[in-house]
Each structure stands twice: as structure tokens, then as C-alpha cells.
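Moderator note: this is an archived Q&A kept for reference. The question asked for a predicted structure of one protein chain; the sequence and the answer are reproduced below.
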Amino acid sequence: MSFRRDYSKVICLRMNGTDNSPGLSGPLAPSIRRPLSPASGWALTLLSWLIPGAGFMAVRQTARGLALFALIETPFILGVLMYGSVPLPAWTPGDLGFNIVNSLTFLTQMGNGLLSGVWLAGNVANIPFFRGDEPQALADLASFYIMVSGALNYFSVCSFHDRLVAPRPKEGA
């Protein structure tokens, strides 16, 4: 029993960065950093929303940032290749296209940041490449992929904020 208790204490010390013995290492190991200042933290949070993973790359967590970028942008690109789009919903009550599902879908798709903004601007400007193609068999699935990409970026931005901008104090500290 005492060995197990001591062993878990060593693991906790290693993960908290208070033990000098070799612990977890590598590009995805937990990094021990001070919280960012509010101004730079919010600026990097906004950057993380615009370009997925950019906030992590800015604080030198390059592997995590690149992995997030690849995992978040892949569904977006697949959705675009399957003729998906980011359409502007109807915001006027009484309009045939006005409903809560369309509004929430739009907000979730815009979670991807810069690429969603570019796609929305192209769709509003009626540029054929950006419009998508509703008659295509995969158009609904493609829009769903774009929506998943936006939701993933939302969770990534929340993770960045919780880890580096406003970390919670450790229990018992």
C-alpha cells in the first residue's frame, strides 16, 4: 500500500512540474506555463477562433496546434469538396426559412472562423464556387461536415482559453 501511495505521489509531482526526475516528455506532454495576461490571452483566443490551432502554436505548442488545425480543417475541406456551403439563414420571423435549427446550424458553421467567413462572403456575393449545390446527393452531409468542423473549433478555442488564459487553481494548493 505505501509503495502505491508513494508511486502516485511521484506521478503527480512529475505532472505538476515540481519533481526534477524524468517524467512525461514529447510534443504533447503537459506544459507548465504561467497564465497569459488578459490582453494577450484574449487576442490569442480570437486568433485561435480565426485559425484553428494558431493560439497553441503561438505559445510554442506547435504539435498540438498543427494537430488541431489538421483535425478541424479536414472536415471543412471534405464538406466543401462535397458541394457544401455556409448559407446565411433567414433572420426575419414569419419567413419560410426562419427557424431555430437554421440559426443554430449557421452559428455552429461559423465556429470555424476565417474559412467559414470567406465561404459565407462568397455565398452572399453569389460566387458560384462558394454557393454549394443543393441538388447534389451529398449536399446535406457536406453541410454537416462543415458544421462539425465549426463545433470542433469551438471546443478547441474553449480548451485553449481554459488551459492558458484562465486556468483554474489546483485543488489543495
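Archived answer notes: The two ends are 25 Å apart (CA to CA).
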